[in-house]
Write a structure and sequence with these properties.
It contains no helices and 11 strands. By secondary structure, the chain is mainly β. Strands 2, 4, 5, 6, 9, 10 and 11 form a 7-stranded mixed beta sheet that branches.
Length: 117
């Protein structure tokens, strides 16, 4: 049972990145899939989540209107589209799966996002 995150990189402020999280099994489709991030010296914080069963979503206030989250059932993959990036979005981003909107049991490795000013 694995989650594989990818897509991080260096981007200028105002730019975009798309993160991907590939799930190893279809059983993940019963879970809420989330993205969380952790900046150096900061606590991990919630970014966005999607319920695979009905595509309902939840976003942190700090990213509403800039980030979207979606799923691709054929690829067992969850995407985080990040637009209008700001330097404060710089962090290691983690994908996770769980039974609740903010309760996660499975974690992927992080992918680093750096936004330059």
């Amino acid at each position: 049972v694995q989650l594989q995150a990818s897509g991080g990189g260096l981007v200028q402020a105002g730019g975009s990145l798309r993160l991907s999280c590939a799930a190893s099994e279809r059983s993940f489709r019963t879970y809420v899939m989330g993205w969380l991030r952790q900046a150096p010296g900061e606590e991990r914080e919630f970014v966005a989540a999607i319920k695979w069963t009905d595509s309902s979503t939840d976003f942190a206030d700090s990213v509403k209107g800039r980030f979207t989250i979606s799923t691709d059932n054929a690829k067992n993959t969850v995407y985080l589209q990040m637009n209008s990036l700001k330097p404060e979005d710089s962090a290691v981003y983690y994908c996770a799966a769980g039974l609740g909107w903010r309760s996660y049991h499975y974690w992927g490795q992080g992918t680093l996002v750096t936004v330059s000013s």
